[in-house]
Design goal:
The structure holds two protein chains of two kinds. Chain A is mainly alpha-helical. Chain A is 82% helix and 0% strand. Chain A is built from twelve helices and no strands. Chain B is an alpha+beta fold. Chain B starts with a strand and ends with a strand. The chains are: A mainly alpha, B alpha+beta. At the A-B interface, helix 8 and helix 9 of A face strand 6 of B.
Amino acid sequence: MLKKNNVPLIFSLLGGLILLFILAPLAGMFVSTSTEQLFETAQDSDVTESIFLTLWVSGVSTLFFAIGAIPLSYFLARSNFKLKKLINGIIDLPVVIPHSAAGIAILGFISRDSVVGKAASSVGLNFVGHPVGIGLAMAFVSIPFLINAARDGFEAVPVKLEKTALNLGASPIRVFFSVSLPLAWRYILSGLIMMFARGLSEFGAVIIVAYHPMITPILIYERFGSFGLKYARPVAVLFIIVCLVFFVILRTFTKEKNSRNA
Amino acid sequence: MLKLQNISVQFGAFCLKNINLNIEKGDYYVLLGKSGTGKTVLLEIIAGLTRPAEGKVFLKNEDITKKKIQHRKIGIVFQDFALFPHLTVRENVAYSLKKKKLTRTEKENMVLEYAKLTNVSHILDRSPQNLSGGEQQRVALARMLITKPDCLLLDEPLSSLDVQLRGDLRNLLRQINKSGVTILHVTHDYEEAIALSNKVAVLHQGKIAQFGNTKDVFEKPANEFVANFTGVKNFYEVAFTSETVAIIGDTTQIIVSNRRKLKHGKIIIRGEEILIATKKTQTSAANHFEGDILQIIPYLSNYEIIVDVGIRLTVVITENSLLKFDFQIGQKVWLSFKSTAVKIIDI
């Protein structure tokens, strides 16, 4: 039997091993990349264009899909209906299915033979191999993070506050924007960051929809396939640094917002 | 003014059945009931936050049962105040003014006016999360009153406040009522009904067990539940002339322990705490009155003896005592009770 006094020590050791499992490969990658290589990679226009493309496509698709995802989350948080569990399950589907399969599904949806593809073709657009296609693939696999976080946020807003606002003469839409949304904002912002971050890292779905223009995860894969680990590693390190910087900035912003609300 | 007609609703374990209430303009109406009897649901039905299964709600003779919440002109203040935590006190109070066609100065003046009325002017720039219960309650009232509702619904407004704050808030509620706002106040505390209301209804097992003028309901409970729940018959409005003397009407003096140095108030003397005897007896009681027995009536498992001592005092005694002393109507008796048996309610 475990001695009571040993429990914190054993838990710390087990937890430490898990942390090491996460940190060691990343640290190894950083250690194996020299500053010189990193600067050289940062001056490579293919790499910088790819990182820029990945950032803006993920950002824009996150914001675009938020327009529909946030109202959907509110609806799911406030309504009770028979098929609610089924809808919640559907929302989680992109997380559980293989991302290559998600890519195939998206490709079928936007290819020239599909209704959407035909409509796009009629105005001279082809989503396959286009940033729009990339954005759709990114959003498909990452939108559950936003919907689930926003739904949790709206559920955490006391219904009584909304009822009070209605009683004070506010219309339902004003109640949403002046009470529900600001109070759930912390969760929503967290969901937006998670969706954005998940979009940045997407590979499986995007490679099927658009090999070109090349987002960074595909560029890393391509460099690895064509030139080997030595050439792929600096791109990966640079991309991780950029992602970390974005992540830290956005998280800091969330915390500032929280402390102002406290 | 506000009329409920056959309101019925089923909510989980409890239900409301055929609730009828008629609240006149200017009334301070208290709805008394134990926790979980559906008092809050009834307020929500009136405010339009919950739909009744059956029945109608009328305001100024207009059927508002299906009218939108935001157009009802009925304000509700919840037990937990429901202040918006992300807004300052000023923004909370001004919330309903946003869509009104007023200039910025007019809006600010209105906020200041209602903040002054509810005594929250000094905390307008603070966050509601940093306020005491009493301050939050005042902000909630200011926020609601600024909408100038025809009727104000209060859900247990004093339950989370300490004794001192309750007194202050009762004064404010009375002031609001006197300014012309009709109030429906739900509570489980009969003292609030005594202190504030002119009319009262008692809710029991989903039905109105009794309603009417507060004095009538307390003095003549219609059934055992109401009698147990209201539980007090001797209550009087008094003026305090010192820390130890309260005057009822012009003549009757009661010795009390008025440590808060109130000038006016109400006092409660429970019938069980009054001693009745055929002769004046020497005890530690400070209050002695001689009077005539007016009535002897069965009360729950005991008897009530109503004695005229200048005021009417109701004494509760057991059947054994009644038989032992053989009290008769018209008989002269002495009543006595300690000053500590007199409970003072700040009004």
